[in-house]
Amino acid sequence: MNDYEADEYFPDFDGEYDSKGRPIRHTHKRSSRKTVRKLPQTTPVLSDFSDDATAWVPSYAAHLDPRHHERQWLIESLSSFYRDNVIFDVIRQVKSGKEANVYCCEAHPATGVELIAAKLYRPRILRTLKNDAIYKAGRMLRGEDGKELKGRREKLALQQKSKFGQHLDMVWWIGNEYAIQQKLHLSGANVPKPIGHNGNAVLMEYIGDARLAAPTLSDVTLSSDEAIRLFKITMDNIRIMLDNHLVHGDLSAFNILYWAGNISIIDFPQVVNARTNPNAMNLLQRDIKRVCDYFARFGVKSDPILITRSLWEPYMGN
């Protein structure tokens, strides 16, 4: 077992469901458990089930050792989306990172799409985020219900970085990503369409096809004409974000996907509010410089400082 201990993924879930098909997490003795039922036989089977026939096991997880923490973490994180007819199977892992893994999922026919990308955050995401105070400045804390946190207990837990405080922090990072992606998609930005959010999982439109996931711009060689066109599209998206009082904060060629001649911007947990975060302008300038540096490789000439001013000054004036 590595740094991500298995009991952090599913500390109290043993594969049982209540009458509504929800996982039961036991915090009391077995003798006091309520009667539970197994999933009905009419429930569609994706690949196989565990020995007690109560836990969904998708195709990708079926190939993993049953004792492997990733298998159990994947099932725990995505089983609710399976029961809700959002995803039908997990086909493969697309990306593995310190903060999260991304999986390609076969969508349920009811969704109207073929493939869905599932981004699963690790329990210890906050340990891998560097200088997160820069992004937290001026933020409005919200709980799992989406409401602003005003209680003294919550604020104290966050300050002391207790286990409960770390949980609240993780909830904020993940919920923030989904809410921002929703807002930007509705505003016409080039972002994957958000599909669902639950616990440590964010589901969104899959960019790519059944054979290949969309590469990032960092792995793509562009022609001069295409580079100019995509540079303009990227700057338009930065402007759309700012129009919505948002600065990506970590934008680069590594989190811009390229597919079928277009781009999709991803990774939004560290987005900051341009109205309340004192670091917003500096983060905006850093985003723009990284983008300009990438496109300069293909002959696109630009001045990141001038571009930043041309966006920031009118925004502040308004």
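[next item in queue]
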Amino acid sequence: MTLTSKFKPLSPAQEFKTGFYRFKSVIWALFFKEFKIRLGKSKLGIVWVLLEPMIAMSLMSIIWLVIKRNTIENIHTMLYLGSGFIVFLIVRRGINPIPQGIKSNSSLLNYPGVKPIDTIFARFFLEMWLHSIASILLFATLFWTIGVHPTFPDPLLAFRAIGIAFMLSLGIGLLLGIYGQFYESVTKTVNILTQPLMIMSGVLYSMNDLPQKAREALSWNPIVQLISAFRQGALGIKPFEEYDLSYPTYLSIFVLGIAFVAYYANRFRLIQK
């Protein structure tokens, strides 16, 4: 019996099944490792992640309540702002802390079964899981305390906006995770440049209240488009004139595609790093 007859090559379906099983096992292990570390460092860290949208919404609502504006576009101010924070924080986590996944798990890259991209996916799944719980908690608290809740007249549009935000967050996180390993200034510079991002993303105000030139300028921010889409699907709010969901959709696909290409080109350097 020859060696080639004894060890038959795997079929494409078998290779995919084996690779998917390895990927699932590694991601699952890294996910729990990340969660235990987050929980072990400080339970307040988990509490902060879960309460961040609610705290941000409450603090920003004070500004509107002080000037006695209880509604924005006929929606309660707290519900309006909270819906914006839900989408904004998804993308914001792609800037930080998702890119830190590779660096925080660098010691595990010596194991042949762990790839750098696995650490990004594990951190991404953990952050999005915690954020989903935080979003549900936000809506539940608003309903329990002041009796307002999203009506979801177009739930598919709302979930589509969330899905695109997930994709954009993963693409940004993977890109920053890769090049942040090679150039330490990348992450710091991006964090500084994105400080005013919340103000420029239409979280705290209605785009329909702005003049045309301001709307046209801000419409280039994909987060503005995603927030508008989510508010339309969850709250039934009419989007602004320059609204076009295809723009953040194609941009997210492009960013994620570029991120995968960048990872493939640098996968060996990341392990050596």
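[queue empty]
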